[in-house]
Here is the input.
Amino acid sequence: MIRAEWVKFRSVRGWVVAVLVAAAAIVGFGITGGNQGSCCGNSCAQPLGPGGEPVSDSFYFVHQPLTGNGSITARVTSLTSAVPAPSGLHRAVVPWAKGGIILKAGLGEGSAYAAIMVTGTQGVRLQDDFTGDIAGPVMTAGWLRLVRSGSVITGYASADGARWTRVGAVTLPGLPATAQGGLFATSPQYTQTSMGVASISGSPSQSTAVFGDVTRTWRGGSWTGTDVGGSPGGPATGYTQTGGQFSVTGSGDIAPATSGPSGLGITLAQTLAGAFVALIILAVVGAMFMTAEYRRGLIRVTLAACPRRGRVLAAKAAVVGLVAFGVALAGTAVAVPLGQQVLRSHGVYLPPVTAVTETRVIVGTAAALAVCAVLALAIGTVARRGAAAIAAVVTLIAAPYVLAVTTPVLPLGVADWLMRVTPAAAFAVEQTVVQYPQVADVYAPAYGYFPLAPWTGFAVLCGWAAVFLALAAVTLNRRDA
Amino acid sequence: MRRAIRAEWAKAWSDPVVPWLLTALVVLSVTVSGVTIGTARCPAAACGQDPARISLTGVYVGQAVAALAGVLALGGEYGTGMIRVTLTAVPRRGQLLAAKALVLAGPVLAAAALAAGAAVLAGLAVLPGHGFTPGHGFDLASWATVRAWCCATVYLTLVAVLGLGVTAIVRDSAAAAGVVLGLLYLFPVAALAAGGQALQRRLEQIGPMSAGLDSQTTLDLRGLPLTPWQGLGVVALWAGGAVILGGVLLRVRDA
Here is the structure.
């Protein structure tokens, strides 16, 4: 049965050529990526945090070495931010501007830390090792305290310096006996949205935190200012001390790195633009594998040879699915590794991914294309007319993707929903980046951020395919051929 | 020519699929537009969204139906062998294709005008309540909105004609549907992958879908790769080119 269908598939030269073109398209689009970056060598390599993830770690740090247990208390009197505008700096609210007290293993980027801070609009936060984030009371100025006891760091906040709220405690296993502690200020990329997704631009902002009443239980040394992770050409940073008052100005972020307008680099999904071309080709072949039989009347011969119609459908689905998976896998297995090399050689920064993730992207994309071909076959069986089936398949799978990913028209919320409920949700298998609520960025499908987890998105597509296969089996059994 | 048009008209309306296609064009476009209009919000001034483009989101789906109408107008004849009878009756092949294009364009134009008009009116009625107010810098009842409606209508018609032309070239309705939709959707995706700004802009200028849909824009026209009428011209070149090439191939090849 499967062999009969395979012979049928193989004997149509147009289909064989089409699937080979599909594989070639995946590779071709993958390795001719026109992206140009400005990274050369390791200049864009981002530091890795204690958890191994790429991080941003740049802030202005007024610090001194602190040995053993103790605590620092400070009153943040104000946190103000500014963003660049054509006429110089322009006062603005940056939601994740940060100013507060930090205790850090060293001055190197990516080293372990715990910090209590006030933020632009997100209240008091206790953050540690880049990914940890505990919310405290909502206030934009007030008293903060960080207490070290061995490797446990506890954060407190207070509106008046008398009644204290415990925000939380974190454990930093890697914290040496002598750590750098003190005051910091930083301010992440500021995103501006105009025309929806199309022209989002990010630019560095800067924030100034003013501290008073700085006390510490550690034996006193003198304060030093360091621009941790600072890049030349960024906004001016530094600190001034007048009496007991510190004014610290910083720019950057202490947070997990993201790609997208506020982050750096592009994602692995960029090497798979050709998968979209392959999708249309494989959908056409999948639909025609069934509709061609109706057109020529061959379906009557097929059903006479195998009267159990469900089996015919299953055999066709198996053949078209396996063929699509095979050619797509051949394409993605070449396009992803080679495409990355080409992009890197053009100076584009790609966040590092694990081998498991890369394999998931390669195999997952191929599997998604295979299921799309099966879905097309099922729709072709229901519609029985090739052109109608292909229009339906492309509208179901390709249109939502194009709408959500490439067009500036849709509100971001609608784009997210399209990528949740339509078969295009399966593109989530290309996701290699993580969204962090504590990092302000534009988490849109266009930047490789899909609203569903990779295999959940794939499951949505499988659900569509299953529904249409069932529908196809019912109509094939009911109708005369 | 008049006889050819009358014959094509009779054939088109005796096909039960045609009324369905035109209905689907209107219903699908208006539904998708309605959902987008219902969910769009503009919380503050300069929220960066174009109310006309939000109202006309349905064109993204409607264009597939329009393309299908164009493909089936000729593809069905190749599927059944009817094309040989048709060419016996109307031996001048260029005339036949022109008649088909006219008979296709008329009803599609009417359906597209209805669909786009309903969507634009729905937007005019609902969007001001969602923050698209004059206070936020929007003037919905403007000539730009009328131009967007015209462009959407003509765009859908040209896509149908493009479908007809491609079918005359590839002579198989399923393959033609794949080629037309591939042409429409390929350019935006290729532009996304291209990365380089200049190349991206060039791809958006020459792609039928990006050029055609940009013509519906009413705000911030200076940022567009093409002016609205130029964008529509690009689509017309694609559609006209496909029909002319299809006509030439129809002349030189056996049916």
Observations:
- DSSP finds nine helices and 19 strands in chain A.
- The mean pLDDT of chain A is 83.
- Residues 2-38+265-478 of chain A form one domain.
- Chain A touches chain B through 51 residues (CB under 8 Å).
